[in-house]
Design brief:
Largest sheet: 4 strands, antiparallel
Number of helices: 1
Order of helices and strands: EEEHEEEEEEEE
Structural class: mainly beta
Number of strands: 11
Shape: globular
Strand order of the largest sheet: 5-4-6-7
Distance between the termini: 12 Å
Strand content: 25-35%
Radius of gyration: 15 Å
Length: 135
Amino acid sequence: MAQIVSIHLDTEDPTTSPALEVDHVAARSWNGWAVPVTTAQALRDFIAAWAEMDPNGTWRPQGIREAWVNGHGDIVDTMPGDDDVAARPVLIYEDGESDPDVWEAARSRSGAVLADGEWSTLYVLDGWTWIEVVR
């Protein structure tokens, strides 16, 4: 029987905190922490669940946006032209209190997922203290 794993932030009792819906967990870790691979909408839902559970926190679902990094390293809101072969999609989260988190899109054949009839980019969410919880 396969174990059911959910992804949470490392908290005092992660089983009572919101779980992040993920496509998969990257094989690599970030400083020993799990690295979930998920969509912008799943992160938005996760942040909204935290905001509901912790209304005094700094959780801002509206602070999540998809953008692009162009070949010059600038973040732009529209997809660069075809001549900018170095352009890549990024996911940005701004909570309004600290520097924004910027995550790269997954660079593999599973770099997108079909959900509700639309393709969504998958992002590699390293840099946070994610843990896998076996249920």
